[in-house]
Amino acid sequence: xxxxxxxxxxxxxxxxxxxxxxxxxxxxxxxxxxxxxxxxxxxxxxxxxxxxxxxxxxxxxxxxxxxxxxxxxxxxxxxxxxxxxxxxxxxxxxxxxxxxxxxxxxxxxxxxxxxxxxxxxxxxxxxxxxxxxxxxxxxxxxxxxxxxxxxxxxxxxxxxxxxxxxxxxxxxxxxxxxxxxxxxxxxxxxxxxxxxxxxxxxxxxxxxxxxxxxxxxxxxxxxxxxxxxxxxxxxxxxxxxxxxxxxxxxxxxxxxxxxxxxxxxxxxxxxxxxxxxxxxxxxxxxxxxxxxxxxxxxxxxxxxxxxxxxxxxxxxxxxxxxxxxxxxxxxxxxxxxxxxxxxxxxxxxxxxxxxxxxxxxxxxxxxxxxxxxxxxxxxxxxxxxxxxxxxxxxxxxxxxxxxxxxxxxxxxxxxxxxxxxxxxxxxxxxxxxxxxxxxxxxxxxxxxxxxxxxxxxxxxx
Length: 461
Hints:
By secondary structure, the protein is of the alpha/beta class.
């Protein structure tokens, strides 16, 4: 797998903001506008498709005042956004006035506006796109209000404003934007209360970071935010966060991680190369595990995938050489290509789904150099034994045993019914547990499992 450094990622990001040709909808006072899909508002856009050899507005110079409304064919449209690459490479632009009607500034909107010296962002703006002010070398003053809750990667890269900031964590609006300078060894960071987002690549590559405290106000952690923080051994993700995105913790020194039950998806490469990670608890809120999500986690010994996950991505656990056991719940409908590629230590696979209803990628349990499935025992539900013995890839296991009890099948009659709910109530009241009673996968039997079993039963009606 090819790994990207920040310079490479920056180059790729710049390629993405240069737009393809399009015809704007109308012009007012030399500025072009596109009517938004709602049909009632507009986005300020570029006059001509900018490239590395051409500007968005060839003759634009000095100061620009963006109106809060524009009129076309007798219809008044509020200006609600400055579009991607809108003023791309307009080096003659020295100042711009943004009205309170604007809520978003697009990716690369002012990229390489080298003459721009200062800008005030109104408190109507909530989003600033990636590379929005990148390369504005004369930009010494910028006012960012607390209305801003999302900032794209490299938004203020190569600006005098950023370069003049003191070393340390820089905030912009309600965003922890970027750690500037060389981080001392054994650094602990406390993200301040009220912060809404940790920006993409905010701490990437800072090996001196050993701990970070994230408040419950944070709802989003950007791509690669803690990538290659090799000194970071543990972190608590607050239950305000709903997803773990691309490469957020890739290459970290994490030895353990607790994923809150607010998280619904684990993104591509999220924990890739966390070779010291020995355990991970995936809550039953998670529905998808992305491509390469836990790849190269050689220290990971076992993983319990909850009965909420429907898809396991390509190479999700590849090269998990320390992985000895894995549980695949009956909720899984898709297992990607090479999902457990070279997990040569796997000795036990507990598979609960009907194999006829699982879409299998290529060589899911492939193991080099023997080019056959890993030498582990496949444990299945008795009712699906014959299906596993004939199903593609599953049938290639050397040993298949029918000895599992389906989670939620409290009375072990090979079906989930109201009788199981009744019995589970008794189990909970008696403070007991069975191999099938931990329905929500939180490691204990409680009232929450009764609710989870009831929901499961209703979903099958």
